[in-house]
Amino acid sequence: MRSKDRLLLQIGSATQKWLNTRIPPRKGLRFDRNRVEHAAPGVAVLVNRHGRITAGPFNRGVFRVGLKSVYGEEAWSQHRSWAVDPAQQKPEGWEFRTEDDDFEFIYWLTDGCQARIRLDVTEGTLSTRIGPELLLAEVLPPQTTRRWLLVNQHLPRAGAVRVFGLGENTPPMDKAGQKVVMWNTDDSDYRIGDNPLYKSLPVAVFQYVNGPAFGLVFENPAYAQFDFSADGKKMRYSVRDTELNYFILLGPTLPEVMGQLASLTGKPAPLPKWALGYQQSRWSYAPSGRVREIAAGFRNRDIPCDVIYLDIGYMDRYKCFTWGEGFADHRDLIRKLHSQGFKVVTILDPGIKIEPGYHAYDTGVRRGAFVTDKKGKNISRVVWPGPCHFPDFLNPAVREWWGDLVRAFVELSGVDGIWCDMNEPSTFDLRRTLPPGARHKVAETVTLSHERVHNAYGLLMSKATHDGLLRFTPLPYVITRATYLGGQKYAATWTGDNASTWEHLRAGIPMILNLGLSGQPVTGPDIGGFRGTPSPELYARWILQGALYPYCRTHTCQGTGDQEPWSFGPDVEATARRAIKLRYRLVPYLYSLMFEAARTGQPVMRPIFYDAPSEGTLRPDYYETEFLLGPYLLAAPLMDPAPIRTCHLPPGKWYSWWSRRERTGGRDYETTFAEDTDLPLFIRENAVVPLYPEPPSFIPDHSLSDLEIVIAVEDRAQGLVVEYFDREALLAFPVQAVTGKGHIEVEVGLIREGAVPPAYRPPETLHFLMNRRIRRLELSSFHEAHSLAPDPANGAWTRITITGPAYPFRGRFVPG
Ligand code: MIG
């Protein structure tokens, strides 16, 4: 970038910060001297001079606190919650006690410990004990000013604690000592350390070293700020509004915190299986002939790819729901790409060009679909198409209108999914978003100012898009840049305009991990970086680790060099092919992880301390540069051009993916090039990892005839191989291998629920790869044939093939 442009950008973003960021007051009026208005096992309501406190269990392991001051405008909570589904409120499993003047809510945690949340009536403060230990306490009553609510939390429990989550943020991953702002912002030149960015996920996850984990979730879409003390033990949350719901997620482990978060804000939407494939994008592939070339490039070079993105260049002068001159043949283009096994995803921005005669504009004006000023006049701001109006996604009727536009567009063109961009919302002026006083109509007679709902705008654009597609396809595919608490119900996300630098490569893993811990399981950065052109070494390293990201897409800005896997010479092309083929081998495993995310809210990519929060795993040098893919794989990618690094393996036994050599966990290792190749990857003991035996060039929508299952049994290996699922239907194999006296008992069952497409047949042939020398098989279920042979990569492992029907399967593997 030229230095003049850079300077302008810097001035612009400083002005934007000045106009949009707020300094919260240090103190306000205390919500103390309360009177009990209502007290029952489900909820206690306290009132004081300045407002009211509502406290009670939300559901299993989740406690809710509502604060509402008497100041300020109309309450949104009376009308809607955009993040939390009140239908999920089932205060089961809680007991209620009153003692003196105080109330106590009691919950038994899964580890047998008792959690007690005590509400001090007079002070209006809460304290949470786990067993005898005080875990969390409010140091002061909640406070209010005419514009703000303030909550101060203190963690009195001894021991070191780290603070994770908090949505989209650059390293360091641990937010202790930091200020984190929630205000969706299009910072198109973001640096490491900058915040706020595009998304607001006010979820703080506390993890003690060798101790419990718990979470705090703050529900309010206005401007908010978290301030953490250097030791992570004091936290202040300030929100520029006069109402707030916050929630305590009791844990006491990280996987349970994630389950509680999903029960509170919703389960991630199942995505179509092809969303797990490699995706290719640039701003912009145009005209359509260029898109055909790119598609052919993948197939001719034997590099697997599932999705090609069309950025704003496909539109007629950037008008949503139109096709420009270069894409007059778009229906033919999309038909052709489909025939080659590609899916096509097109971008949509919220801004609708002001142009009478343009259908989206005309119908929008007629329906009163746009955000207005106080006088009811549609607000105009410049974005790519020129002056635009902005759909009021807060209004359910407008979401319906937008959903109709999306559905019609997709139906006519054959497009497979929608990419929502610029939905912070972003505008081309100094403020770079809508004015604080703009009005949103949240119900027939109620409007709210933009500044109170700003962070929900992108979420509701993705919801409108998702719901529109849902009328057309059972498994919508939406990816969004801006989102808010609960966004996982509608869309996958990416981390916006990163840069083609080593620093940004290193930010990728921590960003995905914290987004995952904030409830967003399918995310990833632009591989290779958006701003600028990566060096061949940088792209090679990036595609190697990127091949294992939950969301795997290369994308770049306009005006940069080519950024396809083959753009960096034959060596990098070969590396990219190998990396992407590894991903395609892993698709059955990734699909099972997506299922787990959709059912229980577990992130696809997890920090190495996820189920072992030890001193060894809770060191930033390791947890920011390594990751678990689901429960069973650990990657320790090379983060710079050097071919060797040190990594830490959590306790237990591990095997190198490539050499299958055994490693003992709970230790640091040097990865040696020859043994680990350029992507150090490890399998955990007791793993069950399903694979495609041969990587396909795109993900088929049926199962393949063969499936490979890696079983690294120590005493009991368990897993679920998910072949097919959507919202209602499931076809899966539970796999179990248990070591007995002189043999290993192996079982593969079959689960079928709901209407699995009739053409969907489970694989005929199963290949097991087991971490033992196996001499013979004793099979107690019927099969046509079986064979066994030492694994060519490592003779201590055995390959076993069972031919049709491969399930249900039961047998003994006899080692020797
Ligand atoms: O003002 O559509 O983050 O991925 O290529 C820039 C053009 C708008 C920002 C997105 C980026 C996309 C670009 N967009």
Automatic annotation (TrEMBL):
<feature type="domain" description="Glycoside hydrolase family 31 TIM barrel">
    <location>
        <begin position="269"/>
        <end position="593"/>
    </location>
</feature>
<dbReference type="InterPro" id="IPR025887">
    <property type="entry name" value="Glyco_hydro_31_N_dom"/>
</dbReference>
<dbReference type="GO" id="GO:0005975">
    <property type="term" value="P:carbohydrate metabolic process"/>
</dbReference>
<dbReference type="InterPro" id="IPR017853">
    <property type="entry name" value="GH"/>
</dbReference>
<dbReference type="InterPro" id="IPR048395">
    <property type="entry name" value="Glyco_hydro_31_C"/>
</dbReference>
<dbReference type="GO" id="GO:0030246">
    <property type="term" value="F:carbohydrate binding"/>
</dbReference>
<feature type="domain" description="Glycoside hydrolase family 31 N-terminal">
    <location>
        <begin position="58"/>
        <end position="227"/>
    </location>
</feature>
<feature type="domain" description="Glycosyl hydrolase family 31 C-terminal">
    <location>
        <begin position="601"/>
        <end position="689"/>
    </location>
</feature>
<comment type="similarity">
    <text>Belongs to the glycosyl hydrolase 31 family.</text>
</comment>
<keyword id="KW-0326">Glycosidase</keyword>
<dbReference type="GO" id="GO:0004558">
    <property type="term" value="F:alpha-1,4-glucosidase activity"/>
</dbReference>
<keyword id="KW-0378">Hydrolase</keyword>
<dbReference type="Pfam" id="PF21365">
    <property type="entry name" value="Glyco_hydro_31_3rd"/>
</dbReference>
<dbReference type="InterPro" id="IPR013780">
    <property type="entry name" value="Glyco_hydro_b"/>
</dbReference>
<dbReference type="Pfam" id="PF13802">
    <property type="entry name" value="Gal_mutarotas_2"/>
</dbReference>
<dbReference type="InterPro" id="IPR011013">
    <property type="entry name" value="Gal_mutarotase_sf_dom"/>
</dbReference>
<dbReference type="Pfam" id="PF01055">
    <property type="entry name" value="Glyco_hydro_31_2nd"/>
</dbReference>
<protein>
    <submittedName>
        <fullName>Alpha-glucosidase</fullName>
        <ecNumber>3.2.1.20</ecNumber>
    </submittedName>
</protein>
<dbReference type="InterPro" id="IPR030458">
    <property type="entry name" value="Glyco_hydro_31_AS"/>
</dbReference>
<dbReference type="InterPro" id="IPR000322">
    <property type="entry name" value="Glyco_hydro_31_TIM"/>
</dbReference>
